[in-house]
């Protein structure tokens, strides 16, 4: 089988490639990338030498694939996570993805890595967001993912399978650098005075879920979106506490008003250096920080595919911190 993987230089895509290239069921793995030099550097860093891997350069959001690319399956993990304007999210996450879909063979299946953000926070008075709840994204990012899901469903029908993971944690995630830098301090901050609760998924378990879905089509009328994530729910204070614990730091966590977070997000968006250092604190992504509950029900996927989370939070953050240390990032 020929596989096409997008987003191979990103957090999830890079971890996916590490697993995919070890599986001999793939006769060819095509990697469209915007930055071939970055991909080559990462392949060298990971010690991957595999003649089945073929890369091609894509410019902007045109997604021009090689003429000899005839994938049986596409895992679409690429997307814009942090932008300054609504149009940036929709140009990349929606329009670019639709151009990609238009070039695929009519027999090709797509596994779309969407996001819990497409559904939105857990509805009031609900313990977990389920497939039966109305989608209500609160950010431009989430709205772009929801729009993409709808457009691709219209074009691909049953050839599309949509997965919505919650917060993803694990090695090779540079977005957790600010978390560990804060965890080193004597005083840590959390947004809002009320506790915030989250579903989460370890990146290796997420990769297993994606590959499982790719290799085992579900013979049912509804092909998603299905939520992912383990049964264990974590709080924002717990996330900071465990991050501190695994790097051997001690301190105190104090809440700050959410109004202060909103004000800071405008300053961060205005200064490129600050935006690069803390992309998750830009104006749009702060809209996702404010709700108190991002908990989803991943039981449907778990039951259909026999999936379960493989590592706990301490193990996951310890691996993440170890990778960041080895790369000199913390």
Structure, explained:
The chain has a domain at 2-171 and 200-230 and 295-311: 3-Layer(aba) Sandwich (Rossmann fold), CATH 3.40.50.720. It has helices spanning 11-20, 36-46, 86-102, 140-156, 177-183, 203-215, 236-246, 258-270, 272-277, 283-289, 299-305, 313-326; strands spanning 2-6, 28-33, 53-57, 73-76, 109-113, 160-164, 167-169, 187-191, 197-198, 200-202, 226-227, 234-235, 252-256, 293-294. The longest helix is centred in the first third of the chain and has 17 residues, at 86-102. The protein is 40% helix and 16% strand. It contains twelve helices and 14 strands. The model has no long low-confidence stretch (mean pLDDT 93). The protein is of the alpha/beta class and 330 residues long. The strands form four sheets. It has a seven-stranded parallel beta sheet with strand order 3-2-1-4-5-6-11, sandwiched between helices. Strands 12-9-14 form a three-stranded mixed beta sheet. A two-stranded parallel sheet has the order 7-10.
């Amino acid at each position: 089988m020929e596989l096409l993987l997008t987003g191979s230089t990103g957090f999830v895509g890079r971890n996916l490639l590490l697993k995919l290239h070890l599986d001999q069921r793939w006769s060819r793995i095509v990697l469209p990338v915007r930055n071939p030099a970055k991909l080559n550097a990462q392949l060298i860093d990971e010690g991957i030498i595999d003649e089945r891997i073929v890369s091609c350069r894509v410019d902007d959001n045109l997604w021009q694939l090689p003429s000899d690319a005839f994938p049986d399956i596409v895992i679409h993990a690429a997307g814009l996570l942090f932008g300054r304007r609504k149009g940036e999210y929709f140009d990349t996450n929606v329009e670019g993805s639709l151009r990609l879909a238009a070039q695929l063979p009519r027999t090709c299946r797509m596994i779309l890595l969407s996001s819990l953000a497409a559904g939105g926070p857990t509805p009031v008075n609900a313990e977990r967001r389920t497939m039966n709840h109305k989608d209500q994204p609160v950010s431009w990012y989430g709205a772009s993912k929801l729009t993409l899901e709808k457009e691709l469903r219209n074009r691909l029908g049953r050839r599309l399978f949509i997965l919505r993971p919650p917060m993803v944690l694990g090695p090779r995630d540079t977005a957790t650098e600010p978390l560990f830098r804060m965890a080193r301090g004597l005083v840590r901050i959390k947004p809002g005075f009320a506790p915030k609760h989250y579903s989460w998924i370890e990146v290796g378990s997420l990769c297993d879920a994606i590959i499982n879905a790719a290799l085992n089509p579900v013979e049912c009328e509804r092909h998603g979106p299905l939520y992912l994530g383990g049964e264990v729910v974590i709080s924002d204070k717990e996330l900071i506490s465990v991050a501190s614990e695994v790097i051997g730091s001690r301190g105190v966590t104090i809440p700050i008003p959410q109004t202060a977070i909103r004000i800071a997000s405008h300053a961060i968006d205005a200064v490129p250096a600050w935006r690069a250092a803390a992309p998750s604190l830009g104006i749009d992504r702060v809209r996702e920080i404010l709700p108190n509950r991002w908990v989803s029900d991943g039981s449907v996927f778990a039951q259909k595919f026999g999936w379960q989370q493989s590592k706990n939070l301490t193990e996951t953050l310890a691996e993440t911190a170890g990778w960041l240390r080895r790369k000199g990032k913390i």
